[in-house]
Design goal:
The chain is of the alpha+beta class and 739 residues long. The protein is 47% helix and 18% strand. The protein folds into five domains: 104 residues, Alpha-Beta Plaits (2-Layer Sandwich), CATH 3.30.70.100; 224 residues, no CATH class; 84 residues, Calcium-transporting ATPase, cytoplasmic transduction domain A (Distorted Sandwich); 130 residues, Rossmann fold (3-Layer(aba) Sandwich), CATH 3.40.50.1000; 113 residues, 3-Layer(aba) Sandwich (Calcium-transporting ATPase, cytoplasmic domain N).
Length: 739
Amino acid sequence: MSSHSHHHHHHEHACCGHDDHHHQHAAAPAPAQPGALASGATRSRLFIAAMDCPTEEQLLRTALAGIPGVLALNFDLIGRTLSVDHRLPDTAPLLAAVAGVGMRAEPLADQQPAPETPTVPAALRWRMAAAGAAAVGAEVTAYLSGVENSAPVIALALLAVLLGGLPTLRKGLIALRRLALNIHLLMSLAVIGAVALGQWPEAAMVVWLFGLAEMIEALSLARARRSIQALAVLAPEQAMAQQADGGWAMQPVAGLVVGTRLRVRPGERVALDGVVEAGESAVDEAVITGESLPRAKAAGDTLLAGSVNGSGALDYRVTAAKGLTLLDRLAAAVQEAAAQRAPTQAFIDRFARVYTPLVVLGAVALAGLAPLLLNEPFAPWAYRALVLLVIACPCALVISVPVTIVSGLTAAARRGMLVKGGLYLEQARHLKSIALDKTGTLTEGRPALADVLPLGDSSREEILRIAASLDALSTHPAAQAIVAAHTGPLAAVSDFVSLAGRGVQGRIEGQAWSLGSPRWLGAAPGQEALEAQGKTVVVLCRGDLQLGLLSVADTVRPHSAEALAQLQAQGIRLQMLSGDNARTARAIGAQLGLTPDQVRAELLPEDKLAAIAQLHAEHGPVAMVGDGVNDAPALARADIGIAMGAGGTAVAIEAADIALMQDDLRRLPELITLSRRTAAVLQQNIALALGLKFAVLALTLAGHGSLWLAVFADAGASLLVVLNGLRMLRNTHRSGNPG
């Protein structure tokens, strides 16, 4: 872990789903990440309930960035929190600046979650309903009487504006004072313009539709917010802990320290990460790994917070306190990923900065120049200019990106894929090649018995029984594999000797046996064929007579071949990297359907780095898949580093850009599919938002557009892009899971 491990105490609040800004904590392999605190600076977290649209972010940015002593601002619109790094004696100037923009900021303590406010208070709903009735009433009255500015129409319209539009007008005024071209200013101008032109019903409809759109936007953002928080809420608040006197009592999880002994009863969720000390059960870890089959747990096995215990009670000792469990770190990483700007978002923000002023200038030109040049009355052109002002609002565009990205990240997390930034979610579809580490990634990483070949008249069972009895006292991995394969009772061995690099020998039932390498005990028939398959061969001899051959090999993971075939079908070049000898590596490659030129063997760690650099240079974006522990440099060097089986190792989560919580490579093609879907949804959203605007623009210039149509298109676009973005959350859960 690099030099920023001391930030880890910050993780406590990450689990509540409201602190997306400590990028450096777990996510950053390098301390140079934005967000690392400068010396002597403090970080204050503010909760700003009114902030969930990028227009407010812009306002706050201009208001706060000018304060001397403010070093950095990190916004999280989905969590509605703002982290400020500053060198001020207290937060008073910050709170004052936020108040100056017409919003209220609440300071949050270091670990305190942001408060859950009802996104749309009941009073507001009633006000909006009444405003809607008044606005519709004004339209209907005007339509029936044919008079746009009769007293009843004006009364109803004013009522609608007062009930539904005051917040908008107030925010518009603030924006005007700050010379910020934001949606509230544009809408206020449209309303005031409509009133000035005597279009009262229109003014009422504009205010009401816009208020409605903001309300819907707030609700949909809350949904995205909840989908992230749902990850962290899965661990229980209380746990059964052993007391000093040996008794058991329920205690709040927040106060429990590492080393406490806890009990999880059948059907309960595990409260904190730990190691089982007593009991046996099967535990469902789907929350963390996406794996639907429960895993057997007994003494010595790890338990993960948030997993669900099966039918047996387990006693376990805590290894990670609240806020530092794997589940909390997952939730924190998803949060953090959501707060980082994805490339599309950065592009859209830049686009909006150019688009809005251009359209506003167009509107001004239309109102001022068109009547003069065409020698036409002023009012209709002024009205068209107002419509253009509404079209100038890029809200639907800007909001569509974070909602889609957050939905994609959450969908991935539910399937046991932890993606540590919108960047990687967007980049995955551009991958041209993937390099995979062999041992522990494509293979199980531990040898297993492959063959038993009798050479004399002894049976396979007898050969395995003698070999396992001899090997029972050896610690060599190949020996352990042979012992593990034999199920019956072992024979007693006397005069046991282990000869390093050769094998073992001893006496069983009065006879001298030896088991070891063919170099020591002589070549045996069939040995060549087995070694050509990349297996390690040992010979069993009674006295000088060779009785049998046993071979041991690293086994390929069950789904590796299927996953590689899917990746190749997606058009991705594959390369297997291995430190093993070339013959073994090629044999494993052949089992996986890889050609010899897709296999690179006998590589040192630095050779793996070179291989990745070469793939990048030749083909473009490259991903590296490894098990995280020894592959950290290569994971960091690749465009996207993917760690396998991170459900156990924290190192892998730290080093990689994407962590697969299970040892199942089928998540990789899923990840690329998800990335392609995310991109498709983003493109649909951009097309939708801009398409609607251009349609209204064309209608307006042709003289058919109306103000409320423009607002309707804007509100409709916002709603549609948000719902389209949230679609990513649907039909991702548990589809086609390993069953």
